[in-house]
């Protein structure tokens, strides 16, 4: 176990976004940083690289240009109504983080990112539209700002700053170094030790080997755990699955690579840190199997507009307000209580062209590549965006037919073990089409669609004009089989506002910090039970920044 001559001021465990942000802040302060990660160098940037690049901002110029009136007070109302904080002890720091984060998202966040070269797409999205009440879950206004460059665009400035630190002799990057233990001496975390893994040529996101070829031990006055959550470890997801969400799914798709395994959470707990809210998690119900997968059980999330009709596995229409894009966990809870692991969207070609987007940097080459011509063609031109059309043609979960009887028959064939009430699906579609004849309706989903189109951003690129599904001019008809897709942990290592990890007695564990998803994106659960979307990357930014600046202030 050779000893490195490099003497870091801090060790960062994990080379994802939150770890890179913490390291870049330390580089700015002239501090020395050692970054260790179990994956190959190809995976620098972690999960964030794969993301759509959504950022939660409040009262931004982008919102104001589209006529959106937002405020810190309204955003806090939405955040606390969504979070549902109800655990005095475990939520104590999550509440403080929520207040601080909303203040950050209203104030310096946008200018701070712009100073690093991060730009924003001008149309603001409206995610998690809510459960139908002013006090309760959901965003009252559009707040989902898309990074120009998506996930790679948000990772780039921090990765570049770290590389500059390497060139300046302030940073060492040690890939294929798996931490198995935090070194604790006299109650203080003094460093890390673990196994050196064999080199691996795995591309970004692909599974890498776990062959041990050596050991290591590194020491520093501060250690930052930036290792992510548990979404790639389905056994852990099921172990901590909450009763309120029903029975854990027997089968799930993975929205994150396998290395998002949750190992460091137990290791950090063994060093004295307190884990809280482990039963809070964020998984999607609009998952589809990737026809061109990178990792095992690789799933992609549909980012739906509000027009698709949503049916459970047996053909019952989901109740209001469980419409596409309104209440992720409410829909998950409802569907899990049906006893089946899938559900269905039924829609038209007119809907898919206007309303379907796919989550992920690789599924949005126009935004990721900052290609204005491709963006105009894919978002404003005729036809569905290229990646959506590819799934429509090649995806195992897509069914396309000219007539409703043909579509329903193929839906039945796609799930032969579940009795599908195709007569009810037909009744619902016919009844829904009758409601389109008037500008007023008792169908709450149609009312929601018309309301959404009052927002210019939705009318331009996100919500199709109301139309009859059985109108041949809107066809063909499309059905999409949807699956549960694992994604985020909302609980984790409890931290104070400096990202210092807290022990069971509520006091900081000397020398230990936690950031990003490993810390429940701050405080051990800044989101409470539910998220407002665009808040995951932002939590990595905010908590990583807090840790880096806190360590930099140390003597």
Summarize the structure.
The protein has 555 residues and is an alpha+beta fold. It has helices at 17-28, 61-65, 72-83, 92-106, 109-115, 150-167, 234-239, 263-270, 328-336, 349-355, 365-368, 372-380, 386-394, 404-414, 422-435, 444-452, 456-461, 536-552, and strands at 10-13, 33-37, 54-56, 144-146, 171-175, 177-185, 188-197, 212-219, 222-225, 253-254, 275-276, 281-289, 299-303, 309-312, 342-348, 357-358, 398-401, 477-489, 492-493, 500-502, 508-514. InterPro entries: FAD-dep_OxRdtase_2_FAD-bd, FAD/NAD-bd_sf, KsdD_DH, Succ_DH/fumarate_Rdtase_cat_sf.
Which tags fit this structure?
555 residues, alpha+beta, 8-stranded mixed sheet, 6-stranded mixed sheet
SSE layout:
Elements: E1 10-13, H1 17-28, E2 33-37, E3 54-56, H2 61-65, H3 72-83, H4 92-106, H5 109-115, E4 144-146, H6 150-167, E5 171-175, E6 177-185, E7 188-197, E8 212-219, E9 222-225, H7 234-239, E10 253-254, H8 263-270, E11 275-276, E12 281-289, E13 299-303, E14 309-312, H9 328-336, E15 342-348, H10 349-355, E16 357-358, H11 365-368, H12 372-380, H13 386-394, E17 398-401, H14 404-414, H15 422-435, H16 444-452, H17 456-461, E18 477-489, E19 492-493, E20 500-502, E21 508-514, H18 536-552
Parallel strand pairs: 1-2, 1-9, 2-5, 9-21, 10-18
Antiparallel strand pairs: 3-4, 6-7, 7-8, 11-19, 12-13, 12-18, 13-16, 14-15, 15-18, 17-18, 20-21
Helix pairs in contact: 1-6, 1-18, 3-4
